[in-house]
From TrEMBL:
GO molecular function: DNA binding; site-specific DNA-methyltransferase (adenine-specific) activity
Broadest EC class assigned to this enzyme: transferase
Species, as recorded: Bacillus pacificus
Claim: Methyltransferase is one of the keywords in the record: yes
Family matches, as SUPFAM superfamilies: DNA methylase specificity domain (SSF116734), S-adenosyl-L-methionine-dependent methyltransferases (SSF53335)
Name of the protein: site-specific DNA-methyltransferase (adenine-specific)
Alphabetic keyword roster: Coiled coil, DNA-binding, Methyltransferase, Restriction system, S-adenosyl-L-methionine, Transferase
Sections of the chain in a coiled coil: 966-997
GO biological process assignments: DNA restriction-modification system; methylation
């Protein structure tokens, strides 16, 4: 369902105040284009594009090109993007002979192209025209706007905003002055071609978002407080009922009121129906609640006197508890604010959806559900999915299924009617196309789609919307072909009024543990489909309360699903056609002991040690699919590479043909530290065509995204066999990782030249601080110096303070920390994707964040291993091949996988060359740190303050910028300026020289390592490109 980019009230106020020069002439030009639709539609798309740009963009919307304005122009055609050779059809911005700032991209298609339909060429998915336009937009640094058109309709999108939100203009509908003014204001040169600070459109977006956030927060607060207030009222006045039942009824009253207000706003009920019944009751001898009960009954059964449709459906079904409860008028006044909210333009379905999502957590909080219990949501791994994710998963899954159906229905046998050699052949070809499209429509009528953990129904709402869209697309194709066959006018009929009901009743299914979630899902779907001609669709058999992954009544009392009974029509098909969703990410050790033991026993053959139940949903959902079903979910990505998921990957990939995996950035869920991925696969069976490759895409972990516009061309095509060839069946999301992995495996087989880190070292985890005793002096021989405050970094061990730890109860640890040099590898991987390894010769026990490695093989010099361990290459290998769990938003290492790092065997003479470089680097770092600390102490004393980050970097600033930084913290005077100048003279040049020398030596060591491991120029470039995206990629100056 389309959402609007701009708040209507804010936009209309803006439009009311604009004046358009020469508006009559512009409307005349536009009418001329519209009047020639039929003639123009016969022309080739490429031939039409220049005419469209000239007519609409230049003459109507005031853009200029190089020819009309030689100094500065605002439109260019088919310009390559800034990062690759792909080309939008047009770009809008400020252009001169030497500069270019692009603010909008244009994707222009022909008259017969559906802007929402994916374009398939030679079996390859190029995405919809909208997808293609979005893929261009992020390749221009200044691009804020995306324009997509088929020369009949023009759409405006905001770059970085979901594709479901846009402004749409059909050119034949804007021939009156009022609609034209809106079109002109939103697309004219003076609105689009503006820097961010001056852009009237960005100002509108900001005001719209501010208003949306304000109304969402305000209504959510009121909605939540009203629920609590109603519950307290019901408990106070209806003592004969259980509190939890009364909470359920409080939510049901809110659901009914919300539905009524929504219907009033959308002309499905008379305006103020709710308010009229409420006030009439308040002014009568009865109560307002009793009058609302009458209204609820009218809505359930219909009432012609009040022009109320019979909605039925279950929401207003007679409820014996509600029939008997008492709500005094003074306590029911809390609902009056409902009458004041605008449910048409402000409280949209999208906003209500967010409020419904949060309501589920609120209800659980009111019930007192503890976070240790499986039903608790956010605390136990239930995170609400951003709209752009649900949209992508649903569309991709349904499109995959449709493409598979087309293969099954033999669409490949269809011939192009345009190439027919006779009229009769053309007619036969068109008839054949129509026949196949009708078969596809019949198949779509019978599709069965499940969300096995449906929550508030976000995925199912997208399923409904997209099924409606696909029905319209097929119906339009049939109508167009019928028009061609008969030579008549296109007969593009609207969908039957019953189609919405049929989709809900026959195609959509949901399961959730939480009864309130199920009721909110139903409400969400009813809001999508309510009309004043038909009853609501009864969803009791489609959206059910149950436990999708537990089959034991003792573990899940009253929640075990009888699949044959609950989903009879689905079972008759052999299972679901599609399953989508975002299952809970509950770690196994967060579950109660009975549930945990149940899962451990049930899945002991495929899961080991720690795991979360999202993989159980994945495994179970495959079994719920029919023989050609499609599964797509967003889940934690630890299953792709985690050692404890090795057997699971083997089993899962044998059951499901993986089609696509997208590794997402870490901030997809703002309130969750979890790395996620989207996968889509097709049920494997002997009759299916087995795909030889899967498509994969890996976002930068730090990327900020609010849309998913990855098309097939952007993705790596990876042979499925690569998974099977990996010794742990690991699934990577870029092909270079497999290439490097395969290369390393070949190298490791050459035992004369390569070994693993674990084969030449002993290592252990640092002690857990809370389990030991400490003292300020060595009381016994088991009291060893301990790093109390400090940390390890690349080529640095920062010891701020120490005391003594008593290891008498853990004497096996002592050998790792005394009498011999060791390396400390920090448990976390830093923000620059680097392993951080430091060196120590003194006796020193470290906390658990630093793991000691002792070199035990006398063929290797410890500082040679030190260099390899700190190299970009080994960091890159680790982050790409290992399981990166999260700790407080940082990714962390495991000793098992660190021990698997490949070590190049070289003779001692070559090692000494590397060691000399390391020692030179250590010396320069020591000199730098000593001088830097001295300089900072002196600067702090001069200013008499604790230095901020800018001042800590004083030596990198020119004197003017240095003074600006000082001026922010203290007043400048002549003497102070002189002192600061002298300080810079003493320290800055030497610090910069040392810093450059450190970076130069570090880079020399990196290149030596690349050469030792025989990397190709292409492989080196790949690694260097990865690290070039980070500020301070060396991580050598992260102390400041």
């Amino acid at each position: 369902m389309q959402g609007l980019l701009f708040d209507r009230y804010i936009l209309n106020n803006k439009i009311d105040n604009i004046k358009i020069d020469d508006i009559d002439n512009k409307l005349k030009i536009l009418k001329g284009w519209v009047n020639k639709f039929e003639i123009l539609s016969q022309k080739n798309e490429k031939n039409l594009q220049p005419i469209f740009f000239e007519t609409i963009f230049k003459k109507v919307l005031d853009y200029t090109d190089l020819i009309t304005d030689e100094d500065v122009w605002s439109i260019q055609f088919e310009e390559k993007t800034e990062v690759d050779s792909t080309k939008p059809d047009g770009i809008l911005g400020v252009y001169t002979n030497s500069t270019a700032a692009t603010y909008a991209v244009i994707e222009l298609k022909g008259f017969d192209v559906d802007l929402d339909k994916k374009q398939m060429r030679e079996g390859k998915n190029y995405g919809t025209p909208v997808d293609q336009a979005y893929s261009y937009a992020h390749k221009f640094d200044d691009c804020e706007w995306i324009i997509v058109s088929n020369m009949l309709e023009i759409r405006l999108y905001k770059n970085g905003t979901s594709q479901n939100f846009y402004e749409s203009f059909y050119l034949n509908d804007i021939l009156n002055e009022a609609d034209f003014k809106k079109f002109y204001f939103l697309l004219t040169k003076n609105s689009i071609v503006q820097p961010a600070k001056k852009s009237p459109l960005l100002n509108l977006v900001e005001k719209t978002n501010t208003q949306k956030q304000k109304i969402t927060k305000e209504f959510y607060t009121y909605y939540s407080q009203t629920r609590s207030s109603l519950w307290e009222t019901l408990k106070k006045n209806n003592s004969g009922y259980d509190d939890e039942i009364l909470l359920e009824k409080s939510q049901k009253i809110l659901n009914r009121i919300t539905f009524i207000r929504f219907c009033e706003a959308n002309n499905l009920l008379k305006a103020n129906t709710l308010k009229s019944f409420y006030e009439e009751g308040k002014n009568s001898k009865l109560s307002s609640w009793e009058f609302l009960e009458t209204l609820f009954n009218y809505i359930d059964k219909g009432n012609t006197k009040n022009d109320i449709n019979r909605y039925n459906g279950g929401l207003f079904k007679e409820d014996t508890v509600l029939n008997n409860i008492v709500i005094p008028d003074k306590d029911f006044e809390v609902i009056e604010k409902f009458f004041d909210y605008n449910f048409k333009d402000e409280l949209t379905i999208d906003i209500l959806g967010h409020i419904f999502e949060q309501s589920i957590s609120d209800i659980e909080a009111l019930k007192g559900i503890k976070k240790e219990e499986i039903g608790s949501r956010k605390a136990n791994g239930v995170f609400y999915t951003p709209e752009y994710i649900t949209s992508y998963i649903v569309k991709d899954a349904i499109d995959d299924w449709i493409e598979n159906e087309k293969v099954r229905l033999d669409f490949n046998s269809l011939t192009d009617w345009k190439n027919a050699k006779s009229k009769s052949a053309e007619s036969r070809s068109i008839n054949r196309h129509i026949e196949k499209l009708k078969e596809l429509k019949d198949a779509l009528n019978n599709i069965k789609i499940l969300d096995a953990a449906c929550g508030s129904g976000a995925f199912l709402i997208k399923v409904f919307e997209y099924l409606v869209q696909k029905h319209k697309e097929i119906q339009k194709e049939i109508a167009d072909l019928n028009a061609l066959r008969t030579g008549g006018i296109e007969n593009n009929l609207a969908l039957d009024l019953d189609m919405d009901r049929e989709i809900l009743k026959n195609n959509i299914y949901g399961i959730d543990l939480n009864k309130e979630s199920v009721e909110i899902t139903k409400l969400s779907l009813w809001l999508q489909t309510a009309n004043n001609k038909k009853p609501l669709t009864t969803l009791d058999d489609n959206i059910i309360v149950g436990n999708s992954i537990v089959n034991d009544e003792e573990i899940a009392p009253a929640r075990v699903i009888n699949w044959e009974k609950e989903f009879t029509s689905v079972q008759e098909k052999g299972g679901f056609d599609i399953i989508v969703g975002n299952p809970p990410y509950v770690p196994i050790d967060f579950l109660d002991s009975d549930t945990s033991e149940y899962f451990q026993e049930e899945y002991q053959d495929i899961l080991k040690n720690k795991w979360d139940i999202s993989v159980i949903f994945m495994h179970k959902c495959v079994s719920f699919l029919n023989s050609s079903g499609v599964l797509s979910m967003i889940v934690p990505r630890t299953w792709l590479t985690g050692a404890n998921y090795t057997k699971f990957r083997e089993v899962f990939s044998s059951e499901l043909n993986l089609n696509k995996i997208i590794s997402l950035p870490k901030d997809v869920f703002p309130d969750a530290n979890v790395d996620t991925c989207i996968f889509i696969g097709t049920k494997d069976n002997p009759g299916n065509k087995i795909e030889k490759n899967y498509l994969a895409y890996k976002y930068d972990i730090k990327a900020k995204i609010s849309v998913l516009n990855v098309i097939d061309d952007d993705m790596d095509s990876i042979p499925i066999d690569f998974i099977k060839q990996h010794h742990m069946n690991k699934i990577f999301t870029d092909i270079n990782s497999y290439k490097l992995y395969n290369k390393i495996q070949v190298l490791l087989k050459d035992e004369s030249n390569y070994t693993q880190l674990g084969s030449i070292t002993d290592s252990t985890q640092g002690p857990v601080e809370s389990k030991f005793e400490y003292s300020t002096r060595p009381i016994t021989k088991y009291h060893i110096p301990y790093l109390k405050d400090g940390q390890g970094y690349r080529y640095r061990l920062n010891v701020e303070s120490s005391n003594y730890i008593n290891l008498s109860e853990k004497q096996t640890l002592i050998s790792y920390y005394v009498k011999q040099p060791r390396l400390y590898c920090r448990r976390i991987v830093n923000r620059q994707d680097r392993l951080m390894v430091s060196y120590c010769e003194n006796d020193l026990v470290t906390k658990k964040e630093l793991n000691p490695f002792i070199v035990t093989d006398n063929r290797f010099h410890i500082k040679y291993i030190y260099a390899l361990f700190n190299s970009k290459l080994l960091s890159y290998i680790y982050i790409n091949f290992s399981t990166l769990a999260l700790k407080d938003d940082y990714r962390q290492t495991t000793l098992k996988e660190l021990r698997e790092l490949p070590i190049k065997i070289i003779n001692s003479d070559k090692q000494i060359q590397v060691v000399k470089k390391v020692e030179e680097l250590e010396h320069n770092i020591y000199q730098f740190d000593k001088l830097y600390e001295q300089a900072c102490a002196q600067l702090s004393a001069i200013l008499n303050i604790k230095l901020n980050q800018a001042l800590k970097n004083f030596y990198r600033l020119n004197f003017a910028d240095f003074l600006k930084a000082v001026k922010k913290v203290t007043k400048l005077n002549k003497n102070l300026i002189q002192e600061l100048d002298e300080l810079r003279d003493v320290y800055s040049m030497e610090l910069l020289e040392l810093e450059n020398s450190i970076l130069e030596i570090d880079n020399e060591i990196e290149n030596i390592v690349y050469k030792l491991y025989e990397l190709t120029d292409e492989e080196i470039q790949k690694i260097e490109e990865h690290y070039s995206t980070f500020t301070n990629s060396s991580s050598l100056f992260s102390l400041k």
